[in-house]
Amino acid sequence: MNMTNKLTAVAGVTCLLVARLVAQAPPAMAVGNPANDTARFLAGLPPTSDPAIIALAQQSSWQQHARFFDTAWAALEKNQLSKVRTWAQTQIPDACVAKGTVYYMFSGPDFLYAETFFPQATTYVMCGIEPIGPLPDLAMIDQRVLGGELRSLQASLNSVLSFSFFITKQMKGDLQHHALSGTLPLLYIFLARSGNTIHDVSYVSLNEEGMLTAQPDGKNSGKSLAPGVRIQFLAAGSNIPRTLYYFSTDISDSGVKHSGFLQFCQTLAPGNACVKSASYLMHEKYFATVRGFLLDNTRTLVQDDSGIPCGYFTPEAWQLRFFGSYPGPIQLFKNYYQPKLADYYRTTNPQPLDFGIGYRHHARESTLMVAEHKPRPATAPVPPPSTPPRALPVPDDAASWPPP
User: Fold this and answer.
1) On the CB side of 7, how many CA atoms lie within 13 Å of its CA?
2) CB atoms < 10 A from the CB of 401, how many?
3) What span, in angstroms and rounded, lies between the C-alpha atoms of 401 and 404?
4) Containing structural domain, residue 158
5) Whole-angstrom Cα distance, residue 345 to residue 374?
6) Helix or strand or coil: residue 398?
7) Strands of the 242-248 sheet, one edge to the other
8) Is residue 259 in a domain?
9) pLDDT single digits (tens) 168-201
């Protein structure tokens, strides 16, 4: 074989090897994805691609953190999430598989229940008064205090892991004065533990008209009345892009008047929605706007008794179903007892729940309601205007008309 043929053969083998290596390479999304590896690290799951974060996961403090989450999540899945998931598949089957938008007002960082009720949604819109916080950056954390930061995250999640809801006042303290602060670390944890892969995280803000603007560094978001974060992700086993929006904003009547938040939500309507542990705020007249938005733009609403009072669901427009029991609000919210809801529970033989939800977090005391918007009646066609009578001809000798 002459030299030219040898070089040609070597080049061919080299190309073949390169082609095989490329074919065997992991998906491009998993390479150089620090946001996803950060989420996995915070959730106690092994990071997969970032060498610095993989090295950080060798520390004993992270190993303890991982054991905590493995144990806590296994219990949560067994006692709560698997039951909620089965309930959703059985009781709201169409909404459970629906694509499109899910609204979760007063959610705080609780992405967990929005996804469990509506796992196929492509857009989740969440809001609360809790701050977003900076993008979690593990490189900026002194390794000597890493264990304390991770334990703080565990404390922040204790109430939702145990009772299904965040305690706002307690969470406000948990989310401040730490390197890992705000709602973002908690959103990261819920996304990662739910089997999702984060693709991109960016700050956004809304103007008064509801127009969304990206804020690359997040610094300008504070000028908006509705600063937010957009997290783009993929669910396990799916290639359908999904988006989670969280806005730190006031959704009282005065708050939404100029924030643009509901105008933005309107661009994604209609959708499905869930409300729980919402401090009965939509029982008050100064939350009428967001209450009206949900009534006008929701196909299926899943809520506990702290959501929209049942009297707002007119029988002409809504089909209501009830689950669990209604012992009334806890002592803190005793003034929000609903006699009409109590009547429904006495007369409709609600199906029992095998999971707890809301402020009364024991299954035997929990209240859950499904409101499904009835199809709007088809508008009757407007009949065409009747043909006007044809004018009678006027004879030439009009003076002699009518004839004798």
Assistant:
1) 3
2) 10
3) 8
4) 28-138+147-297
5) 21
6) helix
7) 212-215, 197-206, 227-234, 242-248, 123-128, 101-104, 271-275, 298-303, 367-373, 318-324
8) yes
9) 444 445 545 668 888 999 999 999 999 999 999 9
In a domain, 350, yes or no: no
In whole angstroms, give the CA distance from residue 20 to residue 254: 61
Residue 198: what residue type?
Answer: I
Task: Count other Cβ atoms within 10 Å, centred on residue 106.
Answer: 22
Structure tokens at 171: 């969470």
Number of structural domains, the chain?
Answer: 1
* 55 located within any domain: yes
Distance of CA 196 to the CA centre of its chain: 13
Q: How far apart are CA 228 and CA 249, in angstroms?
A: 8
Q: How far apart are CA 42 and CA 136, in angstroms?
A: 9
What residue ranges of the chain have pLDDT lower than 50?
Answer: 3-31, 164-172, 175, 388-389, 391-404
Q: What's 77's DSSP letter?
A: I
Q: Give the side-chain half-sphere CA count within 13 A for 350.
A: 23
* CA 204/CA 229 separation, integer angstroms: 5
Whole-angstrom distance, CA of residue 343 vs CA of residue 348: 8
The pLDDT of residue 389 is 46
Token pair of 96, please? 């459970």
Q: What is the pLDDT of residue 160?
A: 61
**Does the bond joining 404 to the residue before it have cis omega, within 30 degrees of 0?**
no
What six digits make up the tokens of 400?
A: 């002699």
| Whole-structure pTM value | 0.83
C-alpha 57: how far from chain center:
29
Q: Between the CA atoms of 41, 42, 44 and 45, what dihedral angle is there, to the nearest 10 degrees?
A: -40
